[in-house]
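### Sample
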Amino acid sequence: MPAQSVRSLPSESSSVPASVERVAETVLPTRHGTFRLVGYRDGGGTEHVVLAQGIDDDAPDTTGPPPLVRVHSECLTGDALGSWRCDCGEQLDAALAEIAREGRGAVVYVRGHEGRGIGLLAKLKAYALQDQGIDTVDANTALGLPVDARRYDQAAEILQDLGIGAVRLLSGNPAKEEALEDLGIRVVERRGLVVSERSENARYLATKRARMRHDAAPVADAWDLLLDGVVPAAPAPGEAEELAHRYGYVAAATGQLVIGQLRQSLDGFIASRTGDAGLHEDRGDQGHLQRLRALVDAVVVGASTVLTEDCSLAVEEVPGSSPVRVVLDAGAKVGVQARVLADDGVPTLWITGLGAVVPTGLPASVEVVRLAEGDFAPRRVLDILQARGLWKVLIEGGGKTVSRFLDAGVLDRLYLTTAPVLVGDGVPGIRFSGSDALDEARSAPVRRFVFGQDICTEFNFAAVR
Ligand SMILES: Nc1nc2c(ncn2[C@@H]2O[C@H](COP(=O)(O)OP(=O)(O)OP(=O)(O)O)[C@@H](O)[C@H]2O)c(=O)[nH]1
Ligand SMILES: [Zn+2]
């Protein structure tokens, strides 16, 4: 027999009137910023809280769109204990993050909603039944309890008390929208929050969709979140977790971030003495360089690298857009045929010397920046990029360029990958002025990644600055 779809009980079915009373007001600093915390008690004695930002009850802002609002049902196991059986904790976290990002909105944290209104211990009994194979809907019914006993009149009254008559609702549950509308709150938009689908919650999420009319929750793709500058709160084990672990710091960075990367032979060369740079062909780096490019605003290379490798510096193998290309080329030696100067929709900053002769007829996407000879110092280059809004920068090569940025002390991180070959003599990789005493040698906390036969060492210089 096909599973029956269930509607929640209408809010009128409950006997106790809400009639909320505002009891306390303070502030709550959280990892998403500081929220106004307002405490209410309803007519049945249940206590509720609201976390709000940018909401002025006395002078509601009627100019812009209505605020983001989440009416969040209490869930001790999900919200406080980090349970993966449901998506509550992740939704609460995502709602606070979105509200903080907009600087305006409210989470109404509704107590008494535990277990869709049946209470904590009844929910645990329902979990025990689910452990034996029945779904979340039938488990409540088997206990002789309603599938969904939640009422929303207290939430509606709280919103009205805060001067919020219309909302953009953060919820995947159409019943919440209908209940609020019935109670006089205008829902101009409703959308679910991004959550991770895991083996532990997959059945629960599927049942919510199939039997409780929930929308399909937008499932977080960890890489998409990182590209959007968001660190996934609870990435699924496996690739998502690895990506969040490796690159979360790039997504989270708010100010300037300068990352160097270089792949060299074990004895420290990037090419043979004739300039054969075949070392770069098989990177075996699981898309590491592509991912770094996709996460930064600009990628910087020296002219020699462009001349020997004719790289496009584009993001091609992973989802994401190509960063602005920055070519350091005092003598304007890079020819117009070079791929970095191609008219391929990716902007290029061609930084050349004052007297260098630059060909005419360059594509509009190429901006030529002129610098005096002594002005190619790494900090000066970074200032030029920053002035153009390019805050996250990857110094991609070659050996001289990365070494100059390292020597200038401007690298926050350096990925130095060593390939298991010995070149003996050739184009040097990392070389810098160094120091007489070994205890002054550059060091920093490191992480190591194995890329095929290569070892990549990530120096976190920012941690010791
Ligand atoms: N009875 C019961 N309650 C559950 C179960 N899993 C989560 N809950 C409760 O369900 C409530 C959340 O309801 P959901 O249906 O997950 O989501 P929603 O609040 O209706 O919709 P969203 O706004 O999209 O989160 C919380 O109070 C949880 O404690 C379960 O298996 N059985
Ligand atoms: Zn939950």
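The pocket of zinc ion (ligand 2) is lined by residues 75, 77-78, 86, 88 (CB under 6 Å). This sample (GTP cyclohydrolase-2) is used throughout the tutorial notebook.
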